[in-house]
C-alpha cells in the first residue's frame, strides 16, 4: 500500500558531526520509445522552480530508503536505486546554513497518478540538456552530469561485452571439427525417437 501523506517535522532528522542536516534525493530516469534518456524534474513548493526530488534523511531508515521515500512523496514514482552519485555540501539561502546532500540514480519502473505532494508540485519528463538548464541547484546539476557519465560508461561496457561474445562465438565456429565423412552410418534398423523434430521457439 502506497502512503499518500508525506513525513513532516525534523525531530528524527540526521545530522553529520559538524551539525549539518543530511538530505538525500534521486534523479529519476527512463528511456523513451526511441531509446533516448529522459529525467524527471519536479517543481519546488515555494517558488515553483524546477529541481530533483530530495529531502531529509531520518534516523529510522537507510540512505537508500530515504531516497526512495522522498522520490515517492515528491515525484510519485518508484523504481530501482542503481547507484550513489555523490555527496555535496551546499548552503541553504532560506535557512542560511550548510547541508550535506547525497544523490542517487533511480531507474523508474512505475509512475503513480496520485501521490502525496501532487497537489503542491508538478512533474515533467525532459531531456538531460533541458533538465540541466532548468534545475535551480548547482549541486544537482553536477549529480546529473555524474549520472550521464555513469550511464554512458555502462552502455559502452555492454557494447564491449556484446562484441567479445560475438568474437568468441565466431572463434568457436571456426574451431569446431568437421564431421568425418567416412564415419559409419547409423544402424538403419535402430528405432527413431518418437518426438516432434520440427524447430521450436524457446521463451526464457
Automatic annotation (TrEMBL):
Family matches, as Gene3D superfamilies: Nucleoside Triphosphate Pyrophosphohydrolase (3.90.79.10)
Hydrolase is among the record's keywords: yes
Keywords recorded for this protein, A-Z: Hydrolase, Magnesium, Manganese, Metal-binding
Biased composition regions of type Acidic residues, renumbered to the chain: 156-196
SUPFAM superfamilies named in the record: Nudix
InterPro entries registered for this protein in UniProt: DDP-like_NUDIX, NUDIX_hydrolase-like_dom_sf, NUDIX_hydrolase_CS, NUDIX_hydrolase_dom
Coiled-coil ranges from the UniProt annotation: none
Keyword check for Magnesium: yes
Region of interest called Disordered, as start-end residue ranges on this chain: 156-204
Family (UniProt): Belongs to the Nudix hydrolase family.
Protein name: Nudix hydrolase domain-containing protein
